[in-house]
Design goal:
Blueprint: H1 4-14, H2 19-32, E1 36-37, E2 51-56, E3 60-65, H3 71-74, E4 77-82, E5 87-98, E6 101-109, E7 122-132, E8 135-142, H4 169-172, E9 176-179, H5 187-197, E10 208-217, E11 222-224, E12 230-233, H6 236-251, E13 258-263, H7 280-288, H8 292-300, E14 303-307, E15 310-311, E16 334-336, H9 347-359, E17 365-367, H10 379-387, E18 390-395, E19 397-399, E20 406-409, H11 412-425
Parallel strand pairs: 1-2, 4-13, 4-14, 14-18, 15-19, 16-17
Antiparallel strand pairs: 2-3, 3-13, 5-6, 5-10, 6-9, 7-8, 7-10, 11-12, 12-20, 16-18, 19-20
């Protein structure tokens, strides 16, 4: 079983504890492959055959390659995914000392499964904005080592815990960072001290103007199972899709013009200037093709693959899936359907993906929720509506979605990559 792509993706995920880090990894890969970074605030002089990318707020990124074929005549092959995952974010004034323990208050970002966060070795990463040399500086940080933990309450003190313990995010989710802190210690003071230990130039507490920091589990991605059939990792939803998409984007031949769009804020609805409901992708394409008539023609012939994980059928909870629509790990990417438009798949776009899978010899599966349940959201429907182009929602089946550690199939990354590469290289997507 070839694991080279799997190991590469796992390394990328380990290096990406936050969307800022994921975009930084993608930026480095694009630069190493000859892509030019553009600034949205500058005038652009785009060249035929050029390869470009932009980032916005360091958490979303759009990359574009001008293929040898005319994008107005042949459309764009677009892959979309999201960089964010449900996490615990540090509040602006988080300090709390209880029973001699220094803790920090957190907000729950997205629909997190909270119980797996207990008793984990947690680190902290994200972005800090500093006042330095008369101006502002953004600093990407990652503590890497375990600096915090959220201890569980012992079973002896809650005998009914295994019958369903209620978790109050305000009262029960504060991580413990330190015992017996010095009087008056603030989180910014602690942060300034730790940044000094990390080799950053000496920073005073008053220089830290703001921060966007998240806790994460320090346990690295791993192949598990007797035959290493599975990948266990944090943030598989949706860095798995981001990095398989990035790898396919950089590995495909380049005949067709293509776009890779990785958005932040999907887990909270995408309604921001760096989310899929914002203007990031559309404004990029407006500058790429300024003439409206030509752009409308291009978008009409374009297609978006919205790539986001799917729910694999759980062997302990098979009743949670509709009969006949229970995707299995390592059985191929999943085409996701929803009559209520939670997914953007249509008969035409699903047929295109099925044909692509058949042509590259890759299995595929289909998913629809039980009639008494609702599906999750993706960037697919909102991007399709905003851009006015054909879209399909696909993704790899996983267990424990939105947990601090999720599980996917180690073979499925190759399956998805093969379909994405064939899609990026296919000239005619018409039926």
């Amino acid at each position: 079983m070839p694991f080279s792509l799997c190991q590469k993706i796992m390394s990328w995920i380990d290096a990406s504890p936050t969307p800022y880090h994921a975009v930084d990894v993608a930026r480095g890969e694009l630069l190493s492959h000859g892509y030019q970074e553009l600034n949205e605030g500058d005038a652009w002089a785009l060249q035929p055959g050029g390869r470009y990318f932009i980032t916005r707020r360091d958490a979303s990124i759009v990359a574009f390659r001008h293929g040898r074929s005319n994008p107005v005549e042949n459309g764009l092959r677009i892959i979309g995914a999201h960089t964010d995952s449900p996490v615990l974010k540090v509040k602006p004034k988080p300090e709390k000392v209880s029973q001699g323990y220094f803790q920090v208050g957190v907000e729950v970002y997205g629909g997190a499964l909270l119980s797996p966060w207990f008793d984990r070795d947690l680190s902290l990463a994200g972005r800090v904005t500093l006042k330095q040399d008369g101006g502002l500086r953004n600093l990407l940080i990652d503590f890497r080592r375990p600096i915090a933990i959220i201890p569980s309450l012992a079973i002896h003190l809650d005998r009914t815990a295994n019958e369903g313990r209620a978790i109050n995010a305000q009262e029960h989710m504060r991580p413990v960072l330190l015992q017996n802190p010095e009087p008056g210690l603030t989180f910014k003071g602690l942060l300034a001290r730790e940044l000094g230990k990390m080799g950053v130039a000496e920073i005073g507490e008053d220089q830290i103007l703001d921060f966007d920091l998240s806790f994460y589990d320090t346990h690295k991605a791993a192949l598990v199972g007797i035959e290493q059939e599975f990948v266990a990792s944090a943030r598989l939803d949706n860095l798995l899709s981001c990095f398989v998409g990035l790898n396919a984007f950089l590995s495909s031949a380049g005949e067709q013009s293509a776009v890779l769009a990785l958005f932040d804020h999907e887990e909270v609805g995408s309604q921001s200037n760096i989310g899929a409901q914002g203007n990031l992708l559309l404004s990029f394409l407006e500058r790429f093709v300024p003439e409206a008539e030509a752009r409308y023609r291009m978008l009409h012939k374009s297609m978006l693959l919205s790539v986001d994980n799917a729910h694999g059928i759980h062997p302990n909870y098979p009743q949670k899936h509709d009969e006949g629509h229970g995707p299995k790990l390592n059985a191929g990417p999943v085409i996701k359907y929803d009559a209520n438009q939670g997914y953007a798949t249509s008969t035409e776009t699903a047929a295109i993906v099925k044909l692509l899978a058949e042509r590259c010899g890759v299995p595929y599966q289909v998913f629809v929720t039980r009639a008494d349940m609702r599906c999750g959201s993706t960037i697919g429907p909102m991007s399709s509506a905003k851009m006015g182009m054909r879209t399909v929602d696909i993704g790899l089946p996983t267990f424990a979605m939105h947990s601090v550690r999720e599980l996917g199939g180690s073979q499925d990354m190759n399956h998805l990559s093969a379909i994405l590469e064939r899609y990026l290289e296919t000239g005619d997507l018409s039926l």
